[in-house]
Amino acid sequence: MTENKKKASEEQLAYAGVLNIGMWIGLALLIVFFIVYISGLLPSYIPIGDLSKTPPGSKIAYWSMRAHDFNQAFNVPTGWGWIKLAGNGDYLNFVGITMLAGLTVACYMVILPILIRKKDTAYAIIAIVEVAVLALAASGILKTGGH
Amino acid sequence: MIHSRKVLKILIVVLSIMALFVSISAFASETQEVAKETASASTTPWWVWPLALFVVTFILGILAVLGGVGGGVLFVPIIGGFFPFNIDFVRGAGLLVALAGALAAGPGLLRRNLASLRLALPVALIASSAAIVGAMIGLALKPNVVNTLLGATILFIVAIMITAKKSDFPNVAKPDNLSQSLHIMGIYREESLGKDIEWQVHRTPQGLALFIVIGVMAGMFGLGAGWANVPVLNLLMGAPLKISVATSKFLLSITDTSAAWVYLNQGAVLPMIVVPSIVGIMLGSIVGVKILVKSKPKAIKSMVIGLLFFAGTRALLKGLGIWE
Fold first, then answer.
1. How far apart are CA B89 and CA B87, in angstroms?
2. Minimal CA–CA distance to B214: which of B204, B227, B202?
3. Which of A49, A76, A104 sits opposite B253 (nearest CB)?
4. Which of A19, A90, A112 is the mutation pick for testing B, counting most B CBs within 10 A?
5. DSSP symbol at B295
6. How does pLDDT run across B289-320, given as a tens digit for each residue?
7. Chain B residues touching residue A27 (CB < 8 angstroms)
8. Are the C-beta atoms of A41 and A48 separated by less than 8 Å?
9. Residues of A in contact with B257 (CB under 8 A)
10. What letter would DSSP give residue A55?
């Protein structure tokens, strides 16, 4: 009994397995796409040299602007709008970033059937609510006020 | 004599790193001024900044491991204080830096049964929900308010690091009803003692309530929240120190995910800042682990506390408009 308790549970090992694979794939994509971005293999939606430039009439460089003002200056879509721009070197990087940010949901989806099979009702409900919370955060529905 | 030499060495290292950050900050201001005068073009080639970011985050990665703190807590005040990037993008990057570190450490900690899924899941639900609220508040606040609050928070963290005690094996006489009904307990092998340690927790409702505050702060400032997770899990809820540290690290992968999505969806993530930072911190952490074997943790911890104090003061003064 003690030996069993000492070992990680089935759902814990399943979670670790998905996390491990997803993390390496996400990191690899992040590095490869960043190389594509800075090497100029693909054109950038926002020219790479423009980030540090100061727009006419402004006192600060683009990357010193608040996110809201930066997005307006370059007409950048928010939420999942970046997908339309993923053919550009800069927005291609969001594939890796999104993968890392979405990994936790994938892990929960993997352990959910195990928790249900084990009749671990409390944790199954916790997992379902957590997926709903993360899906809400990822949806882009939540907006902050303008500046 | 030997002691004073050590103190002197630490002082020299801290002062050198501070001088590096101040130079970067001064260089950023100067570049900005030149750019203003020439209407648009900056004289500094674009690649200087990601390169500087990589070098600094590499150093932060080493210090984070040696000082026993998460990368995010060093990243946000230092990069926000001394680089020309807006605090919105720095916080977005800070969350992704902390997230990447937690995702990388998670599988090993879960497999060794040091991070406990049963302890983490209920806590994560509370903290990640609160982190969304924190992220939304943080993005709605003005940068000077964020910097002031961030500076105050960092100085508070410094106070916690100096004063908080840790307990390897806290005494939990009787687990509370909530933790019993959720079966939050376990056994792990303590290699240093060569024996199995059984653990359980108490004061779960109070702990969960505190994770609301921790989640809000993590989301608002883009900080990994290990500095707060560990004392709550260890000192309040009574989990052994190793379980607390490992579960806290794993917990960040869930808490920071929810806040990171808010920053991502609001366009507060710039790959030019995020990727060099993640790679720099991760490579620095790998080197840090190797140095850790030979280093004196107490001395390094004092150095990290000194740097945090400096960065926190800088953020506070920047927020108050005293040190622009």
1. 5
2. B227
3. A104
4. A19
5. S
6. 778 767 666 777 788 888 889 889 999 999 99
7. 100, 104, 278, 282
8. no
9. 101, 103-104, 134, 137
10. P
CA distances from B71 to A59, B27, B281 (A): 31, 24, 7
Could you give the C-alpha distances from A1 to A7, B89, B162, B189, in angstroms and in order? 10, 50, 41, 15
| Nearest residue to B84 via CA among B120, B133, B34 | B34
Q: Say what the alpha-carbon torsion angle B25, B28, B30, B34 is, to the nearest 10 degrees.
A: -170
Domain boundary assignment for chain B: 2-319
Q: What is the pTM of this model?
A: 0.88
The 10s digit of each residue's pLDDT in B213-250 is 999 999 999 887 888 898 899 999 999 999 998 999 89
CB atoms within 10 A of CB B290: 11
Angle between helices A89-117 and B241-265 (to 10 degrees): 130
Alpha carbons B110 and A13: distance in angstroms, whole number: 7
Establish how many alpha carbons lie within 13 A of residue B83's alpha carbon, considering only the half-sphere containing its beta carbon: 29
Alpha-carbon span B256 to B261, nearest angstrom: 9
Best CA proximity match to B106, nearest among B208, B252, B236: B252
Mean pLDDT for chain B overall: 85
Residue with tokens 């998670």: B106
